[in-house]
């Protein structure tokens, strides 16, 4: 996660399978994590890049990737909460 001119999500990970099902779930987790972490802001200027995943043929699912990405974003959001460069405005 890094400051940017506008929100963007980029998937650079190499998926062994299920990319068309799981990558959108990652983006949903990212968006939900940002919304829940920054409720007081109406626009977030941040670029989120998925660089690497761990995939397991039995345990990997869209839901598991959603949960992992949401947790990761919430952790990163907490770490970057004081960086005003990623916020556009207060509500």
UniProtKB/TrEMBL annotation:
Its EC number is 2.7.3.-. Pfam families: EFG_IV. This is Histidine kinase. GO terms for molecular function: GTP binding; kinase activity. Keywords: GTP-binding, Kinase, Nucleotide-binding, Transferase. The keyword GTP-binding applies. It comes from Saccharophagus degradans (strain 2-40 / ATCC 43961 / DSM 17024). The keyword Cell wall biogenesis/degradation does not apply. Residues 24-75 form the Translation elongation factor EFG/EF2 domain. InterPro entries: Ribosomal_Su5_D2-typ_SF, Ribsml_uS5_D2-typ_fold_subgr, Transl_elong_EFG/EF2_IV.
């Amino acid at each position: 996660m890094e400051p940017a001119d506008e929100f963007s999500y980029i998937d650079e990970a190499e998926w062994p399978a299920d990319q068309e099902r799981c990558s959108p779930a990652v983006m949903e987790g990212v968006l939900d994590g940002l919304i829940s972490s920054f409720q007081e802001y109406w626009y977030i200027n941040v670029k989120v890049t998925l660089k690497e995943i761990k995939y397991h043929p039995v345990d990997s699912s869209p839901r598991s990737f959603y949960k992992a990405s949401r947790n990761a974003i919430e952790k990163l959001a907490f770490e970057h909460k004081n960086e005003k460069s990623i916020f556009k405005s207060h509500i």
